[in-house]
Specification:
Strand order of the largest sheet: 8-7-6-11-9-12-10
Helix content: 25-40%
Strand content: 15-25%
Order of helices and strands: EHHEHEHEHEEHEHEHEEEHEH
Largest sheet: 7 strands, parallel
Length: 265
């Protein structure tokens, strides 16, 4: 088995680039996953694991084989190399190099009556991770990111989603492309916005539905507001007129789930 004990090793330097640069991830079509649960969820989500790097004092080969269920290259590393690559403070002693997936709208496999979350231009990895966790909790059919500002395989998004990057169907596209996609698939879309809106709970989300949220700073663009089946608002009784995007999305999603009797999609 191959062993690497130096952070100056060219392969390790290439993995540091994978962690730090979206360009490196795009060029190689690979990214790093840290942690047992995340690797397990990636495997269940049909991500191809190419290589596992591990600390033998923390995790055994048998544990790794049980975790991935795949034939993968194993590389034994030391603590110094692990700490160079790991993002989290907690130490599980395992990292995986995985292949990225296509995020094309055309690759989405929709159910007959889908419930979809669309988020336009979310910037903060923590918000994106929270949106993916909510989508997983509700078993949404898909999550679509419009005009993405961040590479979805950014390690901060992988970490903040606690593996839900791998449990959701995800696609990206421009606002124009996504609106066309929704219309072509006869999916009603409801845009959360302050302008010309009606209360969210008055709408029928039991038919094919997309719930669309924007950023806290600027909200949704005019293109979404003009094209919406209906603009919706969450009534607020305090002094402010907006809330965290992941909280707003959760409120809308679980109202739709309530209307659907919390049935699985």
């Amino acid at each position: 088995m191959k062993q690497i004990t130096s952070i100056q090793n060219p392969f390790i330097k290439s993995l540091v680039l994978l962690q730090e640069k979206a360009k490196a991830r795009k060029q190689t079509g690979t990214f790093l996953i840290e942690g047992k649960r995340e690797i397990l969820l990636a495997t269940k989500g049909d991500y191809k694991i190419e290589t596992i790097l591990f600390l033998p004092e923390l995790i055994s080969e048998n544990e790794i084989n049980n975790l991935t269920g795949q034939q993968v290259n194993l590389i034994e590393i030391n603590k110094e190399v692990y700490q160079k690559l790991a993002y989290r403070d907690t130490t599980e002693g395992i990292l995986a190099i995985a292949k990225t997936k296509s995020l094309q709208l055309s690759d989405l496999k929709l159910s007959d009556n889908p419930l979809i979350l669309v988020a336009e231009a979310p910037e903060k990895p923590g918000n994106i991770g929270a949106l993916l966790r909510t989508a997983d909790a509700a078993n949404l059919n898909a999550v679509i990111i419009a005009n993405p500002k961040s590479d979805l395989y950014n390690p901060n998004i992988v970490r903040s989603s606690v593996g839900c990057l791998f449990t959701n169907q995800i696609a990206t596209g421009t606002t124009t492309e996504i609106i066309s996609f929704l219309k072509e698939n006869k999916i009603n879309f409801y845009c959360a916005t302050l302008q010309n809106s009606t209360s969210y709970h008055t709408q029928d989300f039991t038919t094919p539905t997309a719930l669309v949220v924007g950023t806290e700073a600027t909200g949704l663009t005019q293109e979404w507001r003009d094209a919406a089946t209906q603009n919706i608002i969450i009534p607020m009784e305090g002094e402010i007129d907006s809330m965290n995007v992941s909280v707003a999305a959760a409120i809308l999603i679980f109202e739709a789930k309530r209307q659907r009797g919390f049935n699985q999609l």
